[in-house]
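@channel sequence for tomorrow's demo:
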Amino acid sequence: MAGSELKADLWVKEYITPWDVYEHGITKILAYKKTAFQEMYIVETGVYGKALVLDGKWQSCTGDEFLYHEPLVHPAMISHQSPKKALILGGGEGATVREVLRWKTIEQVTMVDIDGEVVEACREHLREMHENVFDDPRVELKIANALEVLDTTEQKWDIIISDLSDPIESGPSFQLFTKEYFEKVQRVLAPKGFFVVQAGPVSPGEIKLHARLINTLKTVFANVVSYASHVPTYASPWGFGLASQETIDTLPDPQAIDRLLEEKTNGGFKLMDGTTLLGMLQTPAHIRRAIAEHTQVYTLKEPPKFFGKGTVNS
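structure tokens (generated this afternoon):
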């Protein structure tokens, strides 16, 4: 393209829709592995630091991951106000655990990830994200299938966070965006607990998945809120679903939230404060209309199918 100076010899080409591609310029491949579950790259990018790529889909990178991980974790934690036990399903980079551990009230974090090889690679190459949280005595790491853990545990958690890779059909997690999965989560959620799921892009061309996930959550939980955060390297604002049998305050007082965060966390936030939370919980009209329009409920018989894989090209 005229006027463009291309500095990278290697590109991760991520297919966003059948007509849209996001290419990330790569300066170095730090790790590559085809595991039993997925194809993994950890790469160094030209602008956004180190990144994890699974099945060609961008997971997170050091340059803007806070725009994903802080919204993923803290609206649920703030809603609860004094969470003691948290369950994280997925979250291989360790950044989700990092954010949970900002809360002084937390006594136990259990992280379940199906792919131990990805977790080990992240521990080695993405220390900027996990900040050695796996060494914290409050953290229990289980390399296991999330469904099996949900089926067999009798423990209850105040907070459950579903931080899973996108539900592409050939990947390991497409079953974990269904009504049956959410019912299993509800069984192990403590009274007054809160559940959050990463719920796909909310750009107009891709919003069906998010809308249907929100409607699927509504079949299991009395209260569900759709919210989003703009993550530049995802090429789209990214949606989340916050769910509970408890009322969710979508008009929190920013000053009260700031006081809560000062009292009950160790701070260090890059994005989250009371004003940010208040704005985030105001679901835009186009998203509300999509949720009203796309009412299909995802089940094991009819699970979601996220578009495409990406490629690495030189």
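heads up for whoever presents: The longest strand covers residues 20-34.
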